[in-house]
Write a structure and sequence with these properties.
Elements: E1 2-7, H1 11-26, E2 30-31, E3 38-43, H2 48-64, E4 69-74, H3 75-79, E5 90-92, H4 100-110, E6 114-116, E7 138-142, E8 144-145, H5 156-160, E9 164-165, H6 168-180, E10 185-189, H7 204-212, E11 219-222, H8 232-240, E12 247-249, H9 257-263, H10 269-282, E13 287-294, H11 301-314, E14 318-323, H12 341-364, E15 370-379, E16 382-387, E17 392-395, E18 404-413, E19 416-421
Parallel strand pairs: 1-2, 1-3, 3-4, 4-5, 5-6, 7-10, 10-11, 12-13, 13-14, 17-19
Antiparallel strand pairs: 8-9, 15-16, 15-18, 16-17, 18-19
Helix pairs in contact: 11-12
Length: 422
């Protein structure tokens, strides 16, 4: 039988879907990218739009595949435990994803629909282990699940549960296997990645140091990390191991102390800026990207301008801008001062324009440099890849996939760096 994964949302979902597909493959199922007998839809619920998109895709898959088996799992189901859809055969949340194959095989015997959700998560990490991914150059490894930050706008602590970490020896074993299978770059991912280890008597910097010693690993990337987790131990590891790439994604969310407090973000502007300054002393030229939420309740024009000016001051190399989305069940949903959609849209536009300007400046700063590029795909007579600071590069060569080559950057063309092999 043919199986297809449909994945929405974050890198954690991508990893989990890859793992579930590997379980099907081990049992002799054929993994496909087009029409399938079984669809596994891994949903997202980070915003209302994500919820709507998840529902729309579920309905579309059923409409186009009347006789297929449909499994729906993930955050949207956890956020809406009353979700019921007669078009779906199996519904599970963020627990028991490791049991999808046996649930499908049970359904094939009984044809009885199932909905399995729990009132709460236990504190045990649901272990997964992959040795291959669709990408042949970069692999994700999920090291952590859950979040205890409880930012006032965020539903994820309720859909993912409390902090849980993968055993350090299992992380090292998985990465070693991926490196032996030819992956040049490993991306560490989780819901609150930098909080790794707090429940199993270790720490994220300790894990990083062990990973950096794995023979054959060329690049180690962190999908995202909070500014409060960039402690002295982390900074020491960053200084010591160049294998950790010169790119960090550090969510800001707001550049106003008033809004940061309302968001329950646990840091203020000065703290954020001082940490960034320290990182840039350790790694001059590092790419720092971020997330910013625009139109949070109570955000006046003056407070938005504070955020705008702070983004400009920090000089991020890219800003992912999101309009605030009300989520039922969060504190922010009940706050006064909700911002009209039109104002949010206008502020988003202004901040994206600033991000585009900052991105262009950062890209142009790379012209003339010689940078290692991991080649990920070939198209016609060109090869494409990324620098360690995650900039897209194009060179006029082919047949060099999954290699790290030294490239001299000649120009920036529509946010793609054009270069030649040194």
């Amino acid at each position: 039988m043919k199986v297809k994964a449909v994945t929405l949302g974050c890198k954690v979902n991508t990893y989990e879907s890859e793992y579930v597909m590997s379980l099907f493959q081990e049992k002799g199922y054929e993994i496909v990218s087009d029409v399938a007998d079984i669809y596994v839809i891994n949903t997202c619920s980070v915003t209302n739009t994500s919820d709507a998109k998840s529902r729309k895709i579920i309905n579309k898959v059923r409409r186009e595949n009347k006789d297929s088996i449909i499994v729906v799992m993930g955050c949207m189901v956890e956020a809406h435990k009353d979700y019921q859809n007669d078009l779906v055969d199996i519904i599970i949340g963020n627990k028991d994803k490791t049991k999808v194959v046996e649930l499908v095989e049970e359904y094939l015997k009984t044809h009885e629909k199932k909905k399995i959700l729990y009132k709460d998560f236990d504190n045990v990490f649901e272990d997964m282990f992959i040795t291959h991914m669709n990408s042949h150059t970069r692999a994700f490894v999920k090291i952590q699940d859950g979040c205890e930050n409880f930012c006032s706008y965020c539903i994820i602590p309720y859909t993912r549960g409390r902090q849980r970490s993968k055993k350090k020896e299992n992380v090292l074993k998985e990465i070693t296997a991926l490196v032996l299978n030819g992956y040049q770059e490993i991306v560490l991912t989780g819901i609150h990645t930098g909080h790794y280890g707090s429940d199993i008597e270790t720490s994220f910097p300790e894990l990083l140091e062990e990973i950096c010693k794995i023979k054959g690993l060329k690049r180690l990337r962190i999908s995202s990390i909070e500014i409060t987790e960039l402690d002295d131990n982390f900074l020491e590891v960053l200084k010591k191991y160049p294998i950790i790439v010169s790119h960090l994604h550090i969510p800001l969310q707001a550049g106003s102390d008033t809004i940061l407090k309302a968001m329950n973000r646990k840091y203020l502007k000065d703290y954020y800026k001082n940490k960034i300054d320290t990182i840039r002393m350790i790694r001059p030229g590092i790419s720092i990207t971020t997330d910013v939420i625009v139109g949070f309740p109570g955000e006046t024009e003056e407070l938005f301008q504070e955020t705008f000016d702070f983004v400009k001051e920090i000089r991020f190399s890219k800003v992912h801008v999101f309009p605030y989305s009300r989520r039922q069940g969060t504190k922010a949903d009940l706050m006064d001062g909700q911002i009209p959609e039109g104002i949010k849209k206008e502020r988003v536009k202004r901040l994206i324009e600033l991000s585009n300007q900052l991105e262009k400046e950062y890209l142009n700063s790379q012209i003339g440099l010689e940078l290692p590029v991991l080649i990920e795909k070939n198209l016609d007579d060109f090869s494409f890849g990324h620098t360690e600071n995650y900039l897209k590069v194009k060179i006029p060569e082919k047949n060099i996939n999954n290699q790290i080559v030294l490239v001299k950057i000649l120009k920036n063309e529509n946010d793609v760096l054009i270069g030649e092999r040194v």
